[in-house]
Amino acid sequence: MTEKTFKKHLMRVIFPCALYSASAGVVIGIVVFFFKMLAEFLGTLSADIYSFISHHLVYIPVLIIGLVLSAFVVFLVIKKIPEASGGGIPRSEGIVRGLLTFRWLHSIIGAIVGSIFAFIAGLSVGSEGPGVQIGTAIGDGFNKIYHSRGHTWKRPVLTAGAAAGFAVVTGAPISGIVFAIEEANSRYEPYLVLAAGIGVIFATVTVSFLANIFSVDMRILNVGSFTDLTISLIWIPAVIGIIAGIAAVIYNTLTEKVSLFASKHINKKFVPLIYLLSIFLLTGMVGLLLPQAIGSGHSLIFGVIERLYLWYILLAIFGVKLLLIAGTSASGAVGGMFLPMLSIGATVGGLIGELFLIGGLDIGFYPVIVLLTICGFFGGAIYAPITATIFIIEATGSFISGLHCIIAVFLSMMIMSIFKVESVNEVALKEILKKNSKTGTHSNSQDAEVSN
Question: Are 397 and 424 contained in the same domain?
Answer without folding.
Answer: yes
